[in-house]
Amino acid sequence: MAMAIANLARRKGYVVLSSETLRYSLSLSLSSFSRSRGFASGSDQNDVVVVGGGPGGYVAAIKAAQLGLKTTCIEKRGALGGTCLNVGCIPSKALLHSSHMYHEAKHSFANHGVKVSSVEVDLAAMMGQKDKAVSNLTRGIEGLFKKNKVTYVKGYGKLVSPSEVSVDTLEGGNTVVQGKHIIIATGSDVKSLPGVTIDEKKIVSSTGALALSEIPKRLIVIGAGYIGLEMGSVWGRLGSEVTVVEFAPDIVPTMDAEIRKQFQRSLEKQGMKFMLKTKVIGVDTSGDGVKLTVEPAAGGDQTTLETDVVLVSAGRTPFTAGLGLDKIGVETDKAGRILVNERFSTNVSGVYAIGDVIPGPMLAHKAEEDGVACVEYIAGKVGHVDYDKVPGVVYTNPEVAYVGKTEEQVKALGVEYRVGKFPFLANSRAKAIDNAEGLVKILAEKETDKILGVHIMAPNAGELIHEAAIALQYDASSEDIARVCHAHPTMSEAIKEAAMATYDKPIHI
Fold first, then answer.
1. Residues 151-175: pLDDT tens digits?
2. pLDDT digits over 310-364, tens only?
3. What are phi and psi of 478, to 5 degrees?
4. pTM value?
C-alpha cells in the first residue's frame, strides 16, 4: 500500500523521500540546532571539505556546492586563487603584457606610423596594475563562494582523521572541520636547489621575480621551463641582460623538438642567452651582486658568472608535507605526490587528491579539470580528465602552445604518421599586423588521418590551440579541420592550412 501511494505521488510530481533519507535529513536538522552555524566556523558536518583554495581547490568547492553538497574550503594564504592567481599565472601574465606593450612602443610603433618621442618604464605603476588585477580576481572568487554558499575558512589545515581537518586559523585560533569527503588540493611549491638559498632579494623564486623593486641590469635564470622563460622575457623586455642556465640539453623538454629549436632561436634574437647542459655548483651573495659557479653537466672546468639577481626556476614540488597524511596512512610516491585511482580517491576511504599534489601535468587548468571530475564522482556522477589532451602554453612572444603528442613521442610509439606545416609568413593576418614569426605543425595517423598532436608557435598561440584541443578530444581528422570554413583574414587560417597540408595540399604556399 505504501509503495502504491509513493508511486502515485511521484506521477503527480511530488518528491518522495525514502525512510532512510528522512532519518538522515532529520539527524542533520537536529544537529543544526545543537551547534552554531557562523560563517567560516567549519564546525558543522560537511559533505565535502577542500583543503586548498587554488585553481583546483576553489573550482572543486564551487562545483561541489553547485551539485548540492554542503562544502567548506580551507586556505592558508588568506587569499583565494592559490599560487596561480596570487604569485603565478595571473601576475606573470599581467607583467608579460605590460612589458610587451613597453617593448612594442619602443621598438615597433614607428613601423606602424605611430611616433612616440619618449618611452620609459614606470615600474611601480606596472606592479600596481598587476597587483590590482590579482586583488580584483581574488575578491571575485570570494564572491563566487558566497553566491554558491561555500563556507570559507582561512587557516592552515591538516588531517587528523579521514573525516576531520584541524585548522590553525589566521586569527590565531583553532577549529576542526568535519566532512564525509576530504579533497586535498594544496598545490605545489618552488623546488629548491642544493647550495642555493632563496632570499627573495638577490636570489629569488618566481614570487620574488614578480615583485622586484627595480630592473636588474643582469639576470640569471636557473631553469629553462615555462616559468623561467616567461619571467626572463619580462625582465629582458624591460632592459635586463638575461642568461638562462639549464642542466638539460634542451629548453622546455615537453615541447616538440622542431618547434623548440625555432622557439629558442626566436628568444636568442630577442637577446636571451642560453647555457644548456650546465650545472649550478654554488652561489656567493657576499658582495654587491651575485656570483654563480657553474660547470658542464657532464663534469669539467668551473666558470663563475656575475649577475645582479638570480631567479631559481628549476621546477615545482608537490605541497604535501605537514598535512598529516602519514598519520592517517595516505600513500605517496618518492616525489611526495599523492597516489590516487581514476576517481581521485586515495588508499584511505573518504580522502581524495587533485591538482599538483598528484601525478600529471602541474598546470592550473589541469587542476581545475581534476576538481570538477573529483566532485562529480563524489556526487555519484561520472567525471573525466584526459591528461594526454591537456594543452600547454608558454606565454612569451611569440607564444608556444601544444596539445597531444610530439613528433618524438609518435615515433617512439611506432605509429606511421603524416606531418602538415604552415608558416605564419604565408598568413595574411599575420603579415598585415607585421607579426608573422612562427608556424603550425600537425601530426596525424597515416592510415586514419586521426590527429595525434598540434603544435603552434605564434602570437596568441595560447588562444589558437583550443581548436586543436577540441579536435583531439573528439578524435577528429586533419581533413575535418581543413573542411571547416575559417574566417578571413585570421591567424586561425594557419591551422586550416596546416591541416590541408597534413592530408592533402595547402592553398597559400
1. 999 999 999 999 999 999 999 999 9
2. 999 999 999 999 999 999 999 999 999 999 999 999 999 999 999 999 999 999 9
3. -65, -35
4. 0.90
**C-alpha angle 266-292-297 in degrees, rounded to nearest 5:** 70
- Confidence bin at 7 (pLDDT 50/70/90): very low
Please state, in angstroms and rounded to a whole number, the distance separating the CA atoms of residues 159 and 166: 6
Query: Rounded distance, CA 101 to CA 130, Å?
Result: 14
CA distance 124 to 98: 12
Query: Does residue 419 register a pLDDT over 50?
Result: yes
- Provide Rg for the chain, Cα atoms: 26
Taking the C-alpha atoms of residue 418 and residue 70, their distance in angstroms, rounded to an integer, is 51
Q: DSSP for 410-430?
A: HHHHT--EEEEEEEGGG-HHH
The Cα–Cα gap between 465 and 457 comes to: 10
Length of the chain: 509
Peptide bond just before 296 cis, omega within 30 deg: no
Question: In 3D, which of 131, 127, 148, 40 has the Cα closest to residue 85?
Answer: 131
AA letter at 396: T
Residue 426's φ and ψ, nearest 5 degrees, are: -100, 10
Active site residue 488: yes
Q: Which grid cell sits at 429?
A: 593576418
How far does the chain reach from its first CA to its final CA, in angstroms? 77
